[in-house]
Structure formats: structure tokens, C-alpha cells
Amino acid sequence: MTTTRTHSTAAGQPGARDPFGAHLRHWRTRRRLSQLDLAQEAEVSTRHLSYVETGRAAPSREMVLRLAERLDVPLRERNALLVAAGFAPMYRQRSLDDPAMASARRAVDLVLKGHEPFPALAVDRHWNLVAHNALVPMLMAGAAPELVKAPINVLRLSLHPDGLASRIANLAQWRAHLLERLQQQIAATGDTVLQALHDELEAYPTPQVSHDTPAADTELSGVVVPFQLATPNGVLSFISTTTIFGTPVDVTLQELAVESFFPADAQTAAALTALAAQPAG
């Protein structure tokens, strides 16, 4: 596994019935490349690329995949490019519950379990909770019941006034951080569902947080944005990392991300260790 990469959709994104040239032009424009730039990247003539984009020439399957690679198109959209060019989709999309995905699911569960006594969770491309370790439900306690019913959207849970928002000590800072991450994802993938989620989150009223506290005083201050959550054990301060599968051949695996939270100070580490040692239930 390796560090995450972001993705997003924009207005005017081609539909399933649009020609290949429209899809290619959309992704080339999104990546801010001229035809000359892309032709040089893909090692084809500018004239041929222009013909492909305008529909005067049909691309080969190899050409479609080469252009998609140079444009860093997500696997889901690579399938759409192939279909638009008249070829069968190449990348499978299966649920993590599919028997064929058992080894991948075990790998995710091992990563989550191995991160205890610190919280870690896995989310899909729309930030819906897929899996988590034992610490996560303890931190979600107190959220409105409708926000913790499946499918749980972790961004909605975090920023909704009836979710964790009123308990996030550095809410303004964390909210800005999450919205910026989401906007970067939208800019890269053009996902309209993510855009709708961004608009929803941005419209939430910001609760007045009475236990506001300054950013964690650690050597990492100024390098990362901490997540500071008020709990019965005091304000716990975290830093987080995001991990993805490095070379997935399945759409679901490429879109799966593991978010791991690390204690930003000794007090948080001690509190989490004590919390994990408590009997279940």
C-alpha cells in the first residue's frame, strides 16, 4: 500500500453515450494539458491526437489505455473511456464482501487491527465507512442515531452539528482541512456525488465550541492539521495518514482508503491505551 492520491468531477462531464473524443477532451482539459502536451506524453503525433479527439480517427485499445495512463484517469473512468471507444471494460468492480476479494478484505482488516490501540477506518470513494477497528465506535459515541446508521458517511458524521462537530475542539481548522481535501478530490475525479457532499457540508452551521483549544503543541505543529476531539478523558489530539492500495486492478480497491489516526501527544496515547483496555460493552 502507498500514500493516497486524490480525484473529482465537474459540470459538463461526458455521459455514457458521449463519443470517446468528448471523454478525452474532458480529461485533457481537467489535467490542464494542451493537445501538444498530451501528444508528447503519449508519444503520438499531435495531428493523430487531434483526429482522435474530434472523431475523425478511432483509437486502438492500446491507445485508449496509454492516454488514460498519461492523464492519470481513475480506473472507474478508464472503463468509461474504453466503452466510449467501443471496447469492453478492463477493470472489475466487486464488493469487498465478494469471495474473490477475501484476501483484500483480510489485508484491510489486518491493517486496521494492527493499528490498535489507535483508531483507524476504511472508506470508499464517497467517504462511506467500509470497515473500522475497535477504537472508532468509542470516538463516535454521542452522535445522533441517524448519523451512525449504515451507510455512515464519515465526513457528514464529522461536520454535522448533531455529529462530532460540537466536540471537535479545533472545529474551524479541521472543517477547513476536510473541505479542502474534498475539493481536491473533486478537482481530480470530477465526481458529482462528492460535489454534492461538499456543498452539503459547506452549508452546515458552525456550532459554538465552548471547549476550544489551541492546536496541539507538538513538533509536528505547522506541518500537519491536528484532529482534536473532546472526550470524557479530555481533549484527544491526533494526526492522520491516508493509505491506498498501490497497484490495484479492481475499481473498488483503487477507491478504498484507510485513514489511520496517531496520537499527537503523550496524553492522547495514554488515554487511548487505557480506553482500549476497557472491557467491551
UniProtKB/TrEMBL annotation:
Pfam families: HTH_31, MLTR_LBD. InterPro entries: Cro/C1-type_HTH (IPR001387), Lambda_DNA-bd_dom_sf (IPR010982), MLTR_LBD (IPR041413). Signal peptide: none annotated. Residues 24-78 form the HTH cro/C1-type domain. It comes from the Bacteria. GO terms for molecular function: DNA binding. Residues 1-22 are annotated as: Disordered. Residues 1-11 have a biased composition (Polar residues). Transmembrane segments: none annotated. PANTHER family: BLL4672 PROTEIN-RELATED (PTHR35010), BLL5781 PROTEIN (PTHR35010:SF4). This is Transcriptional regulator with XRE-family HTH domain.
